[in-house]
Design a protein that fits this description.
heterodimer, A: mainly alpha, B: alpha/beta, TIM Barrel, nine-stranded parallel β-sheet, about 45% helix
């Protein structure tokens, strides 16, 4: 029951504020409360090389690049330090199986931390 | 071992790379012709992957054809057209044919090309693609399934030093470095100050990441204007554009400008070579390389 209800509640709350796309593996906390799934290229690891001189999106010229916004907000918003530190981590590929599910449930069950068996990340600090 | 890797990792030689012209018909004869034109000047040449979101002969088959004519390919893979399965099979296909240099990039959006109605894929992003290539080089697919023996890849990536958010570009380059990139071919940049800040920032933290800034040979003010207006992520300062427009011979002036940018780029920390894109198909390339003090091989 909760599994069916929560996605509706989550979307109702997050869509108006963050334009949530229900990827089911929310990383808002690490991206300055800016949803990377609203990037037309759905990039999870920073801006592409097409960002315009005015900081706007290559694909949607009237929209500010979400990664420009994420970077500004990560610096300016009073977010917990640990969240800010997560900004530059290498985020794994999106798990398409989680599309439409509640990221809250996936957070609690740690389902959102499951990555393909081969995925590994080299030391986060050089 | 690839010449590119050998030179970048085991020598202090300056390397020169270029973009192989897209193949659209013309057959192997066109590949042979272009290979002959580029071979005297370049250590390795990029086999592009549907550049500017236009369909062309595929990256892998172009790279194979280049190799047949003695040109060392750097095979590009963009994230726009293929999902993670197809990208891994591209990499294995390259390895099967002895292609070891890979350059992994996001890619222009479909809306930049001539089929803007196409579905954009972007199943994975460039940093993830680099990381997956590194994992494959360690002997397994993303799923964890073994690859035995592991493919031998020399990994590169691309970064745009001159696009916002400027401060963050250094961190993003380092993210790609940590994922496994050993060299970065940088986007065309008409802001020497931004390029300088970027190279200094990267070299400070990752001195062994090889930086290869890109220069483009254009005909004159019109070509520069095109870069500014049509190529995503490239900004030509108004003063630079005006300098070329007002010159008595814009064609000579733009060559002078490109040469200045090239010489400046080569002085920057971390810079180990230059990447040349040539839209002219005349003798400009030869004279440009001569002006840079290069001598052709063979």
């Amino acid at each position: 029951m909760l599994k069916k209800l929560l996605p509706f509640v989550e979307h109702a709350l997050k869509a108006p504020v963050w334009d949530c796309r229900m990827c089911g593996q929310c990383v808002l906390h690490s991206t300055g409360m800016t949803c990377p799934m609203t990037c037309p290229k759905t990039l999870r690891n920073g801006p592409c090389g097409g960002v315009r001189e005015n900081g706007h999106c290559e694909v949607i010229p009237e929209m500010q690049c979400i990664w420009v916004k994420a970077y500004d907000r990560t610096i300016s918003l009073p977010l917990p330090k640990v969240w800010k530190e997560h900004y530059n981590e290498l985020r794994p590929p999106v798990d398409m199986q989680l599309q439409g599910t509640s990221s809250w449930i996936n957070l609690v069950t740690k389902r959102d931390q499951q990555v393909p068996d081969g995925w590994s990340v080299q030391g986060s600090e050089h | 071992m690839s010449v590119l890797r050998e030179k970048l990792e085991n020598s202090n030689d300056v390397v020169f790379t270029a973009e192989f012209p897209s193949v659209d018909g013309g057959g192997m004869a066109s590949v042979e012709r272009n290979a002959a034109r580029l071979a005297p000047w370049f250590d390795a040449v990029n086999a592009t992957d549907n550049p500017a979101a236009h369909a062309h002969t595929s990256n892998t088959t172009t790279a194979i054809a280049m190799k047949m004519y003695g040109l060392e390919p750097i095979m590009q893979i963009v994230c726009r057209d293929k999902n993670r399965l197809a990208i891994q099979s591209d990499m294995m296909g390259a390895s099967l044919h002895g292609i070891t240099n890979l350059s992994l990039l996001t890619g222009d959006d479909v809306t930049a090309g001539d089929e803007p109605e196409a579905r954009r894929v972007f199943d994975i992003d460039s940093a993830q693609a680099i990381n997956i290539a590194r994992i494959m080089g360690e002997g397994k697919y993303l799923s964890g399934r073994a690859i035995n023996p592991a493919p031998d890849f020399y990994l590169g990536a691309v970064e745009n030093a001159a696009a916002p958010p400027f401060d963050y570009r250094i961190q993003r380059a380092l993210k790609k470095y940590r994922a496994g990139a050993r060299f970065l071919q940088l986007q065309i940049c008409y802001h020497p100050d931004r390029l300088e800040a970027f190279c200094k920032g990267v070299a400070e933290i990752a001195p062994d990441l090889k930086l290869i800034p890109t220069l483009v040979l254009v005909k004159g003010a019109k070509g520069l204007g095109f870069m500014n207006d049509k190529v995503p992520g490239i900004d030509v300062p108004a003063s630079t554009l005006a300098r070329v427009q007002r010159a008595s011979d814009p064609s000579v002036e733009v060559n002078k400008l490109t040469l200045e940018l090239a010489r400046h780029a080569l002085t920057l920390p971390g810079v180990r070579g230059l990447h040349i894109t040539d839209f002219r198909h005349d003798d400009t390339l030869d004279s440009f390389m001569n002006d840079l003090g290069r001598t052709p091989k063979r």
